[in-house]
Amino acid sequence: MAEGAFRPIDPKVAAMILFTVVHGAADVIAAGDPPECWLEAVCDLTRQWLGSPA
Could you give the angle at the alpha carbon of 8 between the alpha carbons of 7 and 14, nearest 5°? Predict the structure, then answer.
């Protein structure tokens, strides 16, 4: 955050939300969904949400 690589956000909140997203994706993958679309969605969400706005 200090170097501008990530937008300012509470790290504890970010960690809890990201854990929930990853856990949810892992559950549906374990249930048989193809992993590719879930992995891509998690990566895209993470980049868009945590990435620097610049």
Answer: 90
Encode pLDDT of 11-38 as tens digits: 899 999 999 999 999 999 999 999 999 9
Q: How many CB atoms are located within 10 Å of the residue 9 CB?
A: 12
Q: Is the pTM above the cut of 0.70? A: yes
Q: What are φ and ψ of residue 19, in 5° steps?
A: -60, -45
DSSP for 12-26 reads HHHHHHHHHHHHHHH
**CA angle, residues 35, 46, 41, in degrees to nearest 5:** 30
Beta partners for 6?
51
* CA distances for 24 relative to 1, 9, 33, 34, angstroms: 26, 22, 12, 14
